[in-house]
């Protein structure tokens, strides 16, 4: 069965000492809790190996926020999936809307990244979601369906079954404007049905689909209570241990 997951996405925040301190704080707090979800810290590349050393890997997993679309070689400034995996990271966030919007990541590029991540035994946390104009034009289901089809649906059922998905309506990211519980459930159910149509009900039922976008300790419980919402991808509220823990304990 699918897992409940709360994944932090630190984005481009925290120096290395600050990141290590935050990871230690989260790690110490979860040690005392009977967790009902997997906890993931999505850190900048340079933090990965240091953070991996200070957390209990039975309770806290590490994720990168990106990886290269090439395996290795003369790609100055890039970090490969193999390098990410060698730090002890288990996950990699791919297709975040900020990467799509600011760094020109297309569905085709993302498809290469997903394949390389899987070849290196990393689990992609693959992000999809519409911008405000698309929702207002009632195109949000079409947009999300095409992101799934073009980014992921060339994968085999076996490979698709390894993924975690995150639905992040772009208009809710960092804006303080959360999708309503109904909007989240409606889209998550649509995503699951789209997966079922392509790969069958079993694969769809086993896929964790996280919600992301201004999720915080006050709204997490209601969002996570939806049958098709299996946890959250948390930006701003993952930067303070107390807020992040408030979300983790919403399950
Ligand atoms: P937010 O970011 O929680 O700050 O809205 C979520 C995300 O971008 O993953």
Chain-wise SSE layout:
Blueprint: E1 5-9, H1 16-31, E2 38-42, H2 48-54, E3 60-64, H3 81-86, E4 91-94, H4 97-102, H5 107-119, E5 123-128, H6 132-136, H7 140-151, H8 157-160, E6 164-167, H9 181-199, H10 201-206, E7 209-212, H11 220-224, E8 231-234, H12 241-248
Parallel strand pairs: 1-2, 1-8, 2-3, 3-4, 4-5, 5-6, 6-7, 7-8
Helix pairs in contact: 1-12, 7-9
The protein binds 2-phosphoglycolic acid (PGA).
2-phosphoglycolic acid binds next to strand 8.
Bound small-molecule species: 2-phosphoglycolic acid
Report the structural category: alpha/beta
DSSP helix fraction: 40-55%
Q: For the report, how would you describe the main beta sheet?
A: 8 strands, parallel, barrel
Radius of gyration: 17 Å
Number of helices: 12
Shape summary: globular
Strand content: 5-15%
Please, what is the average pLDDT?
Answer: 97
Q: Key terms for this structure?
A:
single chain, about 250 residues, alpha/beta, 8-stranded parallel β-barrel, about 45% helix, about 15% strand, binds 2-phosphoglycolic acid
